[in-house]
Amino acid sequence: MPRMPRVLLATLAASTMLALAACSSPAPATPAPTQTAAPAPSATEVPVEPLVLLPDGTAQENLAYFDSIAAAVLAANPSAGGESFINALVVGGFNKADMEVGFDRTSVDLAADSVPWAVRFNGECLLGQFGPSSGGYQSAVTAMLSTGSCLIGATRAIDW
Q1: b or e along 106-137 (b: 16 or more beta carbons within 10 Å of the residue's beta carbon)?
Q2: Residue 65 has pLDDT above 70, yes or no
Q3: Fewer C-beta neighbours within 10 Å, C or N terminus of the chain?
Q4: pTM of the full structure
Q5: What backbone torsions phi and psi does residue 38 show, to the nearest 5 degrees?
């Protein structure tokens, strides 16, 4: 067998030992995740203003407020009907005379799959709808119909 130079032999021995050490040593421990506290709000952060009715605004500008009222109704009563939404909108400052609401019950006295309601607002419509067939609460801003109303079809008299 030919003689290997000492440097080459030492290099091979060291490489072999490192390779064996890598195979037999345990994997390095990963540090445990640390929990950090949420940063405190800074003095420069602007507080979020509560939503309010903007009587001179557009329907789109009032949609978030309209939605917040519906969210409060549903938080208080997850199976709320049309009257609850109308009453809450009146308390929120919307004009009851400008509202429309669908029926909570069908003509054969079953719970409606979805109940729509609307507010005519500065020439547009704020529409809300809630029920299992609508996928929960939905809302939109639309143009008024040529009839001057917002909802299509028969609606319930708001006589309370």
Answers
A1: eeeeeebeebbbbbbbeebbbbbbbbeeeeeb
A2: yes
A3: N
A4: 0.70
A5: -65, 140
